[in-house]
């Protein structure tokens, strides 16, 4: 069952003519011809589509929060920042099927009564930015963007904005600050961006994969979409699988797939016939799952029940040769470098976690330091402006709790206790 990737094998899909020949922009035509903006919101609600950026919030419900008739413009921002380590699925859509993203964005903007939309793309995606720039130009020249789109009377402009390469700018309010030309410092919530967003106007921020689903929902109907997957977890997901599997890559599958099926049936199993040790199921910021959770279904609710989060569906597979101290120290280094520095827990906490983990990894850990790490994590979670602090603390806490003996042995034996890979 492929939805978003079904045409990706077609040569020159990036060109608007090829995209149109495969039924592209029919969803937009149908929306403008047959639907009022509110109808589209209702269709998306009925489809059960949940955000693919991390939190999994129902998309139609979020759109419904936008106040209408306030006299202020409404903005839509596409979050193409994709900076969470282990996540590389939005990039595929951007580079291979840019018009799918544009069509989804235009339909969604129409639903929101938005006349100016932005795509915020991470600075490192320079190829993706070039692809999108060309696609936007093509869409303007064919009348899918600009004034009086397809003779409907609806106007929309779309601006591609390149970030400077900061992880925090993927957080929606930091993204808005950055778009406004300021440092990417997250804002306090509430108020939520749906009410007070870009330039203090109502704003919706959606992930690339989320919006790429919209044309398919319009074309095939919400019932069709809702029938894929399971209740509350409808549609497919783009699972970006990396690490110790034989065939890493992006796999589009319904959310009925289990971790075992994903690793062994789709990704060709663990490399060199080794045993599975652990899996990050949704990007580096989520708690780790141990190998005994391999039969977990890869939907939002089942992964949460197993003690983690589906997040961005960036799946990192670790085999038995992985040192968990080294793995989490490396992840922590990322968060320490990417903390925006605005709040103390995150600015200091991420660096303290990193320093202690580095000592333990290098055989200089001291008795009691695991308890200090766990206490630090408690102080860093749920207590500050944005979830980057949580994103750094959650892995450390879960790696220590899941592999306590391994961490403790690093301290008592003053060395790594995992044999290096052959
Ligand atoms: C530190 C941090 C980084 C984030 N990075 C991204 C990102 O790169 N891409 C993304 O779509 N969402 C990211 N998010 C989630 C966004 O804040 C937001 O929830 C999402 O874009 C909403 O889109 P959705 O409802 O379609 O999922 C991040 C959140 C946090 C806290």
Short description:
The protein has three domains: 211 residues, Rossmann fold (3-Layer(aba) Sandwich), CATH 3.40.50; 91 residues, Ubiquitin-like (UB roll), CATH 3.10.20; 89 residues, de novo design (two linked rop proteins) (Up-down Bundle), CATH 1.20.1440. Helices cover 42% and strands 13% of the residues.
Q: Work out the count of structural domains.
A: 3
Continuous helix count: 18
- Write out the strand line-up for the largest beta sheet, numbering strands in chain order: 8-7-11-9-10
Sheet with most strands = 5 strands, mixed
CATH topology of the largest domain: Rossmann fold
Small-molecule binders here are:
flavin mononucleotide
Q: Return the string of H and E elements.
A: HHHHEHHEHEHEHHHEEEEHEEHEHHHHH
Which CATH class of the largest domain? Alpha Beta
| Mean pLDDT across all amino acids | 97
Low-confidence stretches: none
**So what's the overall shape?**
globular
- CATH architectural group of the largest domain: 3-Layer(aba) Sandwich
Class of secondary structure makeup: alpha/beta
CATH H-level superfamily title of the largest domain: NADH-ubiquinone oxidoreductase 51kDa subunit
Strand content: 5-15%
């Amino acid at each position: 069952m492929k939805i978003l990737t079904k045409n990706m094998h077609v040569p020159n899909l990036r060109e608007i003519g090829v995209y149109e020949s495969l039924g592209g922009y029919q969803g937009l035509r149908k929306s403008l011809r047959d639907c009022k903006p509110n109808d589209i919101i209702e269709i998306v609600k009925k489809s059960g589509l949940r955000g693919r950026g991390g939190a999994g919030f129902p998309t139609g419900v979020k759109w419904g929060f936008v106040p209408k008739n306030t006299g202020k413009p409404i903005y839509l921002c596409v979050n193409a920042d994709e900076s969470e380590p282990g996540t590389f699925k939005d990039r595929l859509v951007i580079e291979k099927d840019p018009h799918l993203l544009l069509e989804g964005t235009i339909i969604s903007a129409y639903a929101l009564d938005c006349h100016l939309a932005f795509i915020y793309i991470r600075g490192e995606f320079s190829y993706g930015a070039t692809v999108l720039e060309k696609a936007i130009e093509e869409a303007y020249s064919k009348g899918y963007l600009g004034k009086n789109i397809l003779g409907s009377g609806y106007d929309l402009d779309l601006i591609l904005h390149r970030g400077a390469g900061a992880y925090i700018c993927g957080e929606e309010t930091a993204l808005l600050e950055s778009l406004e030309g300021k440092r990417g410092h997250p804002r306090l919530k509430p108020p939520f961006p749906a009410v007070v967003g870009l330039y203090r106007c109502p704003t919706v921020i959606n992930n690339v994969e989320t919006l790429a689903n919209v044309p398919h929902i319009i074309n095939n109907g919400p019932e069709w979409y809702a029938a894929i997957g399971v209740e509350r977890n409808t549609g497919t997901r783009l699972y970006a699988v990396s690490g110790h599997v034989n065939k890493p890559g992006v796999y589009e599958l319904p959310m009925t797939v289990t971790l075992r099926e994903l690793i062994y049936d789709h990704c060709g199993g663990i490399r060199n016939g080794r045993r599975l040790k652990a899996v990050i199921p949704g990007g580096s910021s989520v708690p780790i799952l141990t190998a005994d959770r391999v039969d977990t279904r890869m939907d939002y609710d089942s992964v949460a029940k197993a003690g983690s989060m589906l997040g961005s569906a960036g799946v990192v597979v670790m085999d038995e040769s992985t040192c968990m101290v080294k793995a989490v120290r490396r992840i922590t280094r990322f968060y320490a470098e990417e903390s925006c520095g605005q709040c103390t827990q995150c600015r200091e906490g991420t660096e303290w976690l990193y320093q202690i983990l580095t000592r333990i990894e290098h055989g200089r850990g001291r008795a009691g330091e695991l308890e200090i790490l766990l206490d630090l994590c408690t102080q860093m979670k749920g207590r500050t402006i944005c979830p980057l602090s949580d994103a750094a603390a959650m892995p450390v806490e879960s790696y220590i709790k899941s592999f306590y003996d391994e961490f403790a042995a690093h301290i008592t034996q003053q060395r790594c206790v995992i044999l290096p890979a052959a």
